[in-house]
Amino acid sequence: MLRTNQSFLAYLQQLYDRQQRKEHIIQKTFAKGKKLMVQHGQASKVMLIKEGIVKCFFTEENDKDYIVEFLGKGEIIGEIEFFRNIPCLCTIEAITEVEVYALSIPYFSSLVKNDLMLNNLLLNVFAQRIVHTSSRASYQQLYTIAHSLSRLLNLQSEQAIDISKEDMAAYLGVTIRSLNRALKEVQGKSL
């Protein structure tokens, strides 16, 4: 439910520390509720989350949001847009205060061409996303909304974050009404 990548974070921290003038990789902070990227907007940097949690979501044509994932430490964003040379696929919004390493596009391009370690980390990220997407799809087919909601509530508790009902419904792919029924079911079981 919350994806993290400690090895990617360690790699980027080393790159950041080795910079002499700190111009290719900078640190940026985003307050809770701020957008790091906006669907259909232009990505000006590739970012790696140093601290905090974001939600990654699509806004569909009917103006409904679907949360694809919650991302935490070490997760990279903007790389797909870089490789495909396309506008942002989705919106990335801070649900806690978030600190990122922001890489300039020319620097990231240079790393892709010359750094085998980065390429291995990226291949691992892409493979993990495929595995995670397929396992999440099967999980949603095999388990009830209440069961998935229980896992989401555990994440909220473990991370000490506040996930709104709207975000819970958007992550589970259900209406607020269905979410409220599932919340009653989950709360009834815990009494």
Q: How would you describe this protein?
A:
There is one protein chain. The protein is α+β, with helices and mostly antiparallel strands. It is 49% helix and 23% strand. The chain is built from 7 helices and 9 strands. The protein has helices at residues 6-18, 79-84, 105-114, 116-142, 145-159, 165-172, 176-190, and strands at 2-3, 25-30, 35-37, 45-51, 54-59, 65-71, 76-77, 91-94, 98-104. The strands form 2 sheets. Strands 1-6-5-8-3 form a 5-stranded mixed sheet. A hairpin with a 5-residue loop joins β5 (54-59) and β6. α5 crosses α7 and α6 (165-172) packs across α7 (176-190). The longest helix is centred in the last third of the chain and has 27 residues, at 116-142. The radius of gyration is 18 Å and the shape is elongated. The two termini are 25 Å apart. 27% of the residues are buried.
Q: What secondary-structure arrangement, pairings included, does this model have?
A:
Elements: E1 2-3, H1 6-18, E2 25-30, E3 35-37, E4 45-51, E5 54-59, E6 65-71, E7 76-77, H2 79-84, E8 91-94, E9 98-104, H3 105-114, H4 116-142, H5 145-159, H6 165-172, H7 176-190
Parallel strand pairs: 1-6
Antiparallel strand pairs: 2-9, 3-8, 4-7, 4-9, 5-6, 5-8
Short description:
It contains seven helices and nine strands.
Q: Which assembly state applies to the chains in this document? A: single chain
What Rg, in angstroms, do the CA atoms define? 18 Å
Fraction in beta strands: 15-25%
Model regions low in confidence, pLDDT < 50 over at least 5 residues? none
User: If you average the pLDDT, what whole number results?
Assistant: 91
* Series of secondary-structure elements, N-terminal to C-terminal: EHEEEEEEHEEHHHHH
Number of helices: 7
For the secondary structure, the number of strands is 9
Q: State the shape.
A: elongated
Question: How many strands, what sense, and barrel or not for the largest sheet?
Answer: 5 strands, mixed
Side by side, the strands of the main sheet go 1-6-5-8-3
